[in-house]
Amino acid sequence: MRMSAVKSLIKNRCELVDELADHIDSILDQCLMKDVINKDDYENAKYDPGPRNRVRKLLDIIYNRGEDTAKEFEALQLQIKAGHLSINERKPWHDNEYSKMMLKHKQVLKRRNEPMMCYNMRHGERIYLTDYFVNLLLLKGHCNLETKKHELLTFGQQRIYLQEKMPERLMVKPEELFYPLNDKRVPKKLLVTGVAGIGKTMLIQKVVYDFANSQFYSEFDFVFHFTFRDLNLINKPVSLRSLILMKNGHLSKVLDDILANDDKLLIIFDGFDEFKFYTELDIDCYVFDPTEEAELVQIIGSILKGELLSEASVLLTSRPTAINHIPLDCVERFIIITGFSVNEINDFFQKFYQNKELGKAMFDMVKENPCLFTLCYIPAFCYIVCSVFKETARLGVEQPKTMTDIYSHYLMVLIKHHWHKNSTSGNVSECDQVSQAVVGLGKLAYTKLLAHETLFFDHDLKANSVDSCDLVNSFLDRTSVQQPDCVENVFSFTHLTIQEFFAALYYVLETSPLHDIMNMEDSNNTLIGSGYLDLFFRFLSGLLSDRNQKLLSKQINCIDCTKSESYLSWLIKNINKLCEDGAFILNQLHCLFEQRNSSLAKGITPKILRINISDNPISFMDFSVLKYFLDLVSGNILELDMTATNISNSLVKSLQPYLSRCNRIWYAF
């Protein structure tokens, strides 16, 4: 007995969805012309989002209309298969509306990405992306960076090794990101990694801007750009189609065509390390339909694994500390951003000062200070250095010498230009108001740093008494995302080192800081041993120095001198113990260097002097700190251990005046 048309429809539903999706619009037109469905049914199905959804809607309508309508639809299908009725397959690249939307989308992307936001910009100031650049190094696989240390410092030293010791590595330009692998296959899934402030987001902005200008990336018709800061605010199931339309509503009419033509699509995910589900990406339950609602991690995992929009290209960025959570089969090309080379630092100074002679003079001045110059390869830090030196040169004061000096001066510059006294604060002095704002930011930075968090919300600001003002906004990035019932804000410090600086400043200014790190014996040992708080302690030491206390007291309430005395006692005791034990001592030497106080040498009197900086690729900054310490201390050095530091012959030779004092020296090329 022959199966009824309705039962056949039910049985073959899944196959029909796959079979009809590519030309559902033409089929709907034929159904209306042949009176299989009425106009209301037609409009009900025609404007459903997504071609597969439209097929499902049409099948539901036919099922509900009964056996006769199902037979008419079955007959219509047979005519189409026999070629008696022509249907038009969607060819969006030939469609006039599709081409118009390509142009419209590029105009939107250009407007969004042409300007850049810098940390101390004021109203009326405008900086353009074309004034910036980034240098890329393409690696042939993952680079196993040390995670036991602060990622910024680890990479600062690894970078020297990457650029100078690996000539077989291939340098690439941003426009070459999607060039074929070994002159054969074009990579579809790219991972770009680099430390905080190195230029990952700036690179993404450059890619989108160049696409919008039709300068490069002509292989793509559309680019969709997502940040994980925005995506973190989604707390319920959602479809990929809805995600795209949140910031690209102008594409609603042609989005189905765009997604159907996914081989001409580039999807960018920026900031994977900030994703709240970054440890859960290795999923085994996939999403296949852009209109299907699912958990966010399922959608992103399905895209990266090629199960959803299998032909689309994907560009993902992340800090090094999170890349181990990205499944290996999600990455076809791995890229690491090295930041600025020496020549590019010079070019940056020239562009920043817009005066060739002044730019050269400032560049030469910074180059003489290896501690500052080594960190200038990070674009964010390079910008801060330029801002500070511009202001100190204008005022005719002594130029900063250490990293803490730079950040302290930077804070003073921003207070000067961005602080406006609150007239509603009654008799509260301006100095008190500034101090309250700084302490609030510092408390936020400190508590979040100890919790290993870099993202926070409105309720975090409120809990730490952080009120919005020009000064606060100069140090915090804010992303506002529209939810159905509210607008939610996500905040972060403009750079990881800014958070560490404010955390240290809070500890210095607050008489009884929350979770006193110096008195938390168990956790203190763990955090110090991991290297996670290395920069925090360097900033702490520099902020407790006489020169920075004097500088900060001009705008902020005075620092308790007893805290400085107790810290210095702790530091000297720590250095003596590490020297006697022969334990790793490099960060304590950095803390001593930040003090820039030669009188402290009187307290450094270990019973035996053993200096261990081994198993740590050494930078010029580290080397300068080592020489500073060797100049401070006198007498015999039982042991100097420089094993596995990648120290060069020329650097070893420059240590010759000190080597005669050493009984044993350990180092290997």
Short description:
This protein is α/β, with parallel strands linked by helices.
Describe the 3D structure:
The protein has 669 residues and is an alpha/beta fold. The chain has a 7-stranded mixed beta sheet. Strands 10-12-11 form a 3-stranded antiparallel beta sheet. The termini are far apart.
List strands and helices in order, with pairings.
Layout: H1 5-11, H2 13-20, H3 24-33, H4 39-46, H5 51-65, H6 67-82, H7 96-113, E1 115-116, E2 127-128, E3 135-139, H8 151-165, E4 170-172, E5 189-193, H9 200-212, E6 222-227, H10 228-231, H11 240-247, H12 255-260, E7 265-270, H13 296-304, E8 313-318, E9 333-339, H14 342-353, H15 356-367, H16 370-373, H17 379-395, H18 403-418, H19 430-450, E10 456-457, H20 458-463, H21 470-475, E11 476-482, E12 487-493, H22 496-509, H23 521-530, H24 534-543, H25 546-552, H26 561-581, H27 586-595, E13 610-612, H28 620-632, E14 637-642, H29 649-654, H30 656-659, E15 662-667
Parallel strand pairs: 5-8, 5-9, 6-7, 7-8, 13-14, 14-15
Antiparallel strand pairs: 1-2, 3-4, 3-9, 10-12, 11-12
Helix pairs in contact: 2-5, 3-4, 4-5, 7-9, 14-15, 14-17, 17-18, 18-24, 19-22, 22-24, 24-27, 27-28
